[in-house]
Amino acid sequence: MQDFLKRLPKAELHLHIEGSLEPELMFALAERNGIELPYASVDEVRAAYEFEDLQSFLNLYYQGMAVLRSADDFFDLAMDYFRRAHAEGVVHVEISFDPQAHLARGIELGVQMEGLSRARRQAERELDMSTALIMSFLRDRPADEAMRVLEQAAPYWEMLDAVGLDSAECGHPPSKFREVFARAMTLGIPRVAHAGEEGPPSYIREALDLLDVCRIDHGVRCLEDSALVERLREERIPLTVCPLSNVRLKVVEHIDDHPLPKLMDAGLLLTLNSDDPAYFGGGVLANYLACQRAFGWSKETFAILARNAIEVAFLDDSRRQALR
Ligand code: HPA
Ligand code: ZN
Predict the structure, then answer these.
(1) Ligand 1 pocket test: which of 242, 275, 287 has the largest number of ligand atoms within 8 Å of its C-beta?
(2) Would you state the torsion angle of the CA atoms of residues 102, 103, 104, 106, taken in this order, to the nearest 10 degrees?
(3) What reaction does this catalyse (predicted)?
(4) What structural domains does the chain harbor?
């Protein structure tokens, strides 16, 4: 089964590239850039990854990414991840990035884009992977800042497959970003949003109704609202579910209690993803394997989940056809 899951051609749709920063690379980049880390060793970094909730993770996530300064750093970050994903049987990856978190540290958007774009081209060429890019807005920062970043990204609009919405969810409903997402829609840029991870089901509704998103990231709390579940099923709205993330951020207590089987029984369009693999105990394959251990799903079920991701990915028709 392990071999089957590894070989199964998988697509990853929910991955924060800054959350793929492994401690080894964090140390290497800190040294390259003359940055002092608050840790003595790689083991010490890993030992610090005990989270109480989303915010306690975000604090370390934003701290960790401070080692990213040059385009080469962003290139190394993404390339490191693409190589690992490739080795796990991932054939298509959609990477989210958080431009505001870097702009706030004085790292220009052009630097971020140069490094990430170069890595995407190299992965496409050398690893025969396809990739997509999602520019995410930080929902715990003001909406007008997100709007300025969207306008600032004008030279790169063509390179964006979507815009997204992430960071601390509670108290920052999708409605806060309705103008920003309306502008993205005018520009013809597709939209996704995190909703229903820690936040209530009403945030999922808002993301659909006010932001016109084509996918919901996480969405696991939809189960608290049966009419919403029915709507997600009817409209075939994909959920990008991240089981190991949900365990590590205590959205669920244990993988055995994860709502994935219920979401599946409800007939929802589900995909399995890693979210922040360096922080949550592994990449896509680790998430597939964790579900296999917890739920004992058949090969057929995993094949459907993998197929779902390919069907709802930001892919051109010929590549999608080739991956089917
Ligand atoms: N949730 C919200 N924001 C994030 C996450 C997450 O799991 N990872 C990185 N930014
Ligand atoms: Zn996420």
Answers:
(1) 275
(2) 100
(3) adenine + H2O + H(+) = hypoxanthine + NH4(+)
(4) 2-318 (3.20.20.140)
Among 12, 18, 88, 197, the active-site one is 197
CA distance 32 to 43: 20
Give SS3 for 260.
helix
How many angstroms separate the CA atoms of 147 and 50, rounded?
34
Answer yes or no: pTM beyond 0.80.
yes
| The pLDDT of residue 253 | 97
Amino acid 279: pLDDT: 98
Reference 6, options 286, 193, 291; nearest CA is 286
The one-character DSSP state at 159 is: G
Low-confidence ranges of the chain (pLDDT < 50): none
Residue ranges with CB less than 5 Å from ion ligand 2: 275
| CA distance linking residue 160 with residue 137, whole number of Å | 13
